[in-house]
Amino acid sequence: MARQLLSALLVPALLGLTACGNTGSEVDLSSPYAPGLDPRGEAVDPMLVGDRLLAAGEYELAIDAYTRAALDLGLTPQIYAGIGTANLQLGRLGQAEEQLRLAARAPDTPPEVWNNLGLVLVGKGEVAEGAAVLRRAYALDNGASDAIRANLRLALAMLGERPYDADQEQEFQVVRSGQSVYKIRTTDPG
Known about the structure:
- By secondary structure, the chain is mainly alpha-helical.
- It has a single domain, classed as Tetratricopeptide repeat domain (Serine Threonine Protein Phosphatase 5, Tetratricopeptide repeat).
- It is built from eight helices and two strands, in the order ααααααααββ.
- The protein has a two-stranded antiparallel ribbon with strand order 1-2.
- β1 and β2 form a beta hairpin.
- α4 packs antiparallel against α5.
- The protein is elongated.
- The chain starts with a helix and ends with a strand.
């Protein structure tokens, strides 16, 4: 008797719950709830999602998206570069260095990856190696990027390879200046 009563109550409840999920193309705009999933829908490329999240400043979510992409594609240089760039922005210089070095092993590594690796090294105090890496980024870019050129100039100034006034000692910080491109900038003392 109790079992019949329970099934009499559960069946309408379950039918009511299945009606709540919206799997069609219709979306009820007046509903405060998110639309349901369309099981027939196509998934968005996780690399594209990672790139968009990185551009939007959602670095932790970008790392998650790149990790999902790695499940499909394997750990490619592009995935290492994306995760390394996100970690650079999060201030995780040790992790960023490791991932950007792995990305830089590819023969066709873009100059932005070398730029970011150089900035990580400068940020860690390894200015000589950072300047060498920034020289490589500048050479690969044929001097076209103002951001890479400015980063190289500041790294060389930190090494003393450029006329530098010791009375104008300045603090430097790494800042983002576009999608996956970072610059060294002087901090204002005041």
